[in-house]
Write a structure and sequence with these properties.
It is a single chain. With about 230 residues, the protein is mostly helical. It has one domain. The protein is about 80% helix and about 0% strand. The chain contains eight helices and no strands. The longest helix has 29 residues.
């Protein structure tokens, strides 16, 4: 595994440090810093920056983020988020770590990018539908708040984690879609408790970083085809 920090460009350093500064400031401005939320945000941002480089450390950090976010979701009774990240995103991040380690690019600094086939797309559609339906039944049984958005979050999380495992640039669009859903979910939670306003800011920053990750991977794809 190459050193992910060593390979960052000036633009990526700026994006990383700016993102960290914004989430730290948003936590401080609430007047009541939640150490768990702040730690999760910093780990998540760092994971996304490394993911944009195609570095396997991003998946290792995603495992840690899933644990932290699972606890945060439990505190707000967002059972869907807790179950999704602990029961699906975390194990798939472990699987992605193994997959990325086994498929390095020629330069050895990043994971090799894979092109989706019709078989991949059909499999994703089938298992995403099945997983979302099963999770919906669980969420309904648990009387989960804002169940519609929680169910959509399950679907986007599944697609994001699966596309990451498949090593395709569309993983970033999957996570960006999930970010938008989570922004809505945590805005609803912050209406009851302003302490969660920083979480909304966190996922807004995540969205920006995920879009950068998509652009970065697409550039690598185009360079490989040239």
């Amino acid at each position: 595994m190459s050193n992910p920090i060593k390979n960052l460009t000036k633009k990526e350093w700026a994006l990383w440090l700016t993102s960290l500064a914004v989430v730290i400031a948003s936590n401080l401005l609430t007047g009541s810093v939640d150490p768990l939320t702040l730690a999760a945000a910093c780990v998540g941002i760092t994971s996304l920056i490394f993911a944009a480089k195609g570095n396997v450390w991003s998946q290792i950090l995603m495992i840690l983020f899933s644990l932290l976010y699972g606890v945060i979701s439990w505190q707000v009774r967002y059972w869907g988020e807790m179950i999704t990240y602990l029961g699906m995103t975390l194990p798939m991040a472990v699987w992605s770590t193994v997959t990325w380690l086994r498929n390095p690019a020629d330069n050895g600094k990043a994971v090799a990018i894979r092109r989706l086939t019709a078989k991949h797309i059909a499999g994703l559609a089938f298992f995403c539908t099945l997983t979302t339906w099963v999770f919906y039944l669980i969420l309904r049984a648990l009387d989960t708040p804002n169940i519609a958005f929680s169910t959509i979050s399950v679907a986007t999380s599944f697609l994001a984690a699966s596309l990451t495992m498949l090593r395709t640039s569309y993983y970033a669009l999957g996570y960006a879609s999930n970010d938008l859903v989570l922004i809505v979910l945590w805005m609803l939670a912050s209406l009851k408790n302003p302490l969660y306003i920083p979480v909304v800011v966190n996922f807004t920053i995540f969205f920006v970083n995920d879009m950068y990750g998509f652009i970065s991977w697409r550039k690598r794809e185009q360079a490989a085809l040239a």
